[in-house]
Design goal:
Largest sheet: 6 strands, mixed
CATH class of the largest domain: Alpha Beta
CATH topology of the largest domain: Rossmann fold
CATH architecture of the largest domain: 3-Layer(aba) Sandwich
Order of helices and strands: EEEHEEHEHHHHEHEHEEH
Distance between the termini: 31 Å
Number of domains: 2
Strand content: 25-35%
Helix content: 25-40%
CATH superfamily of the largest domain: P-loop containing nucleotide triphosphate hydrolases
Radius of gyration: 17 Å
């Protein structure tokens, strides 16, 4: 079953057109990656789904319904949770309070404070510490945990490996693989080929606001993937 569907999307910020006829799908329980260089419009795909960018042409559907009226602050209630680029941990709140903020939509599901702490034990250890006092890798865990607290059908991660050491990215890959096994659909916006290769089943390549390549990752070497993205 198709969970997220974009069809022929033209998206704008003001008068500037960023996306040109973008179409992509994410099936329920599937892990999909969007690849491309900086500035080609990857984050705008997310913003088009959340009403941050203006869609003037095309259709965005989630769970078979047009989501033109969904906005960033109502997306979690609809089943879409976003781990934003830069993590955006709320200043002044503890780790625990950041997580509880993610669960404020009260969607039913498996993710609660105990289950998030089981996934990320370091967050339990530092539950009363300010979220912004964590290391970069721990803040990424917190951002993912906060998103999971909304019990989403689709988890969107925007450049989650940015600024992280390779050993932390390895741990991130294992976490996302574990989440995929639970049946949560993942849309991964990323430039780290190793992370994409380990987590995603399919990929789309974006260049100058258009999809120029798409396919399955199974059997595709890292070298071939890099060639596909070098557009």
């Amino acid at each position: 079953m198709t969970l997220l569907s974009l069809r022929n999307i033209d998206a704008y910020y003001g008068r500037a057109q960023i996306l040109h006829g973008v179409s992509l799908d994410v099936a329920a329980g599937e892990s999909v990656a969007i690849l491309g260089r900086n500035g080609v419009g990857k984050t705008t795909i997310v913003n088009a789904c959340l009403g941050v960018a203006t869609v003037r042409q095309g259709r965005v559907a989630f769970n078979g319904r047009d989501i033109g009226r969904i906005r960033h602050f109502t997306a979690a209630r609809a089943g879409i949770a976003v781990v934003p680029q830069g993590r955006r941990i709320v200043p002044g709140l503890t780790v625990k309070d950041n997580l509880l903020l993610g669960g404020a939509v009260n969607r039913k599901g498996p993710w609660t404070l105990p289950t998030v702490f089981e996934l990320f034990p370091v967050l339990r250890e530092r539950a009363e510490v300010a979220g912004t006092a964590l290391s970069g890798g721990q803040q990424q865990m917190l951002a993912i945990g906060r998103a999971l607290m909304a019990n989403p059908d689709l988890l969107v991660l925007d450049e989650p490996s940015e600024g992280l050491a390779p050993v932390i990215v390895d741990g991130l890959a294992e976490t996302l693989q574990a989440l995929a096994r639970t049946g949560t659909a993942i849309l991964l916006i990323e430039q780290n080929f190793g992370l994409v290769h380990r987590v995603a089943e399919r990929y789309y390549v974006l260049s100058k606001g258009s999809i120029v390549e798409a396919g399955w990752l199974a059997g595709l070497s890292m070298e071939t993937l890099k060639k596909h993205v070098a557009v």
